[in-house]
């Protein structure tokens, strides 16, 4: 069982939680305009980990046959046979229980929305089977991060977290397009859809750039709505620089630095933006 747990954690890429958690934390600091409540911080963290785990696990289980036919993903635990689908579903059920329990410890207003969050995460893997805009379905999952967290800790909704959520969704959709460039040929062979597979690498990378421009515009819009200070604007400026660097790393004729663009750069973006937003609310 311990070996299966290790395989499961590797399967869901638990380290990629750092893409979502900093946005959740930044939203909490903005909602409280300072230090969040300790218990709220704990339950938001557990809810985020649980929901993200369910989403990634569902992706791996649903796509197991597809992954087995792609040389890049054939070595993953489920298609390679190191982790059975049954055990993966047991772990996923535990993550779902953690998510639902954590949601019920937060503001009562958010309890009725948890099925929508899970439905969005489970639906995303199916999107590539019928539309090249599957990246936007993943982005929709991240739209729910700031909006859900804001509702969970305040019980209300306003335009600012919605704009912030749209920005987060565009950011994720943009770098998911970059990541999908690796699988363009494999997707075409299997009849799957993505920006790179349907429109070519050059157009896909161009679309990714525009998504990230729109992400910066959303950060600016949310900043004006929330009347933030200089540390927030410094975060927006540095994020712009990092995203420009990210798009310099990947070219249609050179995908060798996709991992640096996808994981390293975006990890710095999410953590750095969170730190500067938190600092802005504190000072």
How would you sum up this structure, described in words?
The protein has about 280 residues and is mostly helical. It has a single domain (about 1-280), classed as Orthogonal Bundle (Tetracycline Repressor, domain 2). It is about 75% helix and about 0% strand. Helix 9 runs antiparallel to helix 14 (about 260-280), helix 12 runs antiparallel to helix 13 and helix 13 packs antiparallel against helix 14 (about 260-280). The protein is globular, with a radius of gyration of 19 Å. It starts with a helix and ends with a helix. The mean pLDDT is about 90.
SSE blueprint:
Elements: H1 2-11, H2 21-32, H3 38-62, H4 64-68, H5 77-80, H6 85-103, H7 114-127, H8 134-154, H9 159-180, H10 184-190, H11 195-199, H12 201-226, H13 230-249, H14 258-282
Helix pairs in contact: 2-3, 2-8, 2-14, 3-6, 3-7, 7-8, 8-9, 9-12, 9-14, 12-13, 13-14
């Amino acid at each position: 069982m311990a070996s299966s747990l290790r395989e499961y954690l590797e399967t869901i890429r638990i380290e990629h939680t750092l893409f979502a958690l900093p946005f959740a934390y930044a939203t909490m600091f903005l909602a409280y305009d300072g230090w969040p409540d300790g218990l709220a911080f704990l339950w938001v963290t557990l809810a985020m980990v649980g929901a993200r785990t369910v989403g990634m696990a569902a992706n791996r289980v649903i796509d197991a046959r597809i992954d087995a036919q792609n040389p890049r993903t054939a070595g993953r635990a489920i298609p390679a046979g190191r982790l059975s689908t049954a055990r993966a579903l047991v772990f996923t059920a535990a993550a779902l229980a953690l998510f639902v329990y954590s949601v019920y410890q937060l503001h009562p207003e958010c309890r009725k929305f948890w099925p929508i969050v899970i439905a969005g995460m489970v639906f995303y893997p199916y999107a590539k089977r019928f539309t090249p805009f599957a990246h936007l379905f993943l982005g929709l999952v991240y739209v729910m991060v700031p909006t859900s967290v804001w509702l969970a800790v305040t019980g209300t909704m306003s335009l600012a977290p919605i704009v912030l959520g749209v920005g987060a969704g565009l950011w994720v959709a943009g770098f998911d397009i970059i990541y999908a460039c690796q699988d363009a040929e494999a997707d075409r062979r299997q009849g799957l859809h993505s920006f790179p597979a349907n429109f070519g690498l050059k157009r896909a990378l161009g679309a990714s750039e525009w998504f990230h421009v729109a992400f910066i515009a959303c950060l600016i819009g949310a900043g004006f709505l929330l009347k933030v200070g200089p540390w927030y604007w410094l975060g927006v400026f540095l994020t712009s620089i990092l995203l420009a660097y990210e798009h310099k790393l990947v070219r249609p004729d050179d995908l060798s630095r996709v991992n640096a663009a996808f994981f390293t750069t975006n990890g710095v973006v999410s953590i750095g933006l969170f730190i500067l937003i938190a600092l802005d609310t504190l000072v």
